[in-house]
Amino acid sequence: MFFNEKVSPACGEGLQLALMANREFWSTYDPEDKSTAPTKHEVVSFLRSRGASKNLAESIDKVLRPTSLKCGGRPKKWKR
Q: Rounded to whole angstroms, how far apart are CA atoms 51 and 30?
């Protein structure tokens, strides 16, 4: 990470949850081995078990997940 992960208790709950999920799942991720990436279900379940709403948990997963691992969107044939 580019900043100190020791956050003040006054910072937002969402930020604390994001940092917790980042440490728990993404600290061991190897970009050369995509099998080391957690699934969306694992990350969302982890966050939900710590009090995050479904929307917050899914949003944190979207922010933390590297672009190369994101799927979905329009099929390439539709893109210009």
A: 28
Q: Has residue 22 been placed in a domain?
A: yes
Question: Which residues of the chain register pLDDT less than 70?
Answer: 1-10, 72-80
Q: Which residues contact 40 (CB under 8 A, 6 or more apart)?
A: 58, 61, 65
What are 30's strand-pairing partners? 33
Structural domains counted in the chain: 1
- Contact residues for 19 (Cβ-Cβ < 8 A; gap 6+): 5, 7
Tokens 């899914």 correspond to what residue? 58
Structure tokens at 39: 């699934």
pLDDT of 79: 56
- For residue 71, being part of any structural domain is answered with no
Domain residues for the domain of 19 are 13-66
Q: Examine residue 53 and state whether it is found in any structural domain, yes or no.
A: yes
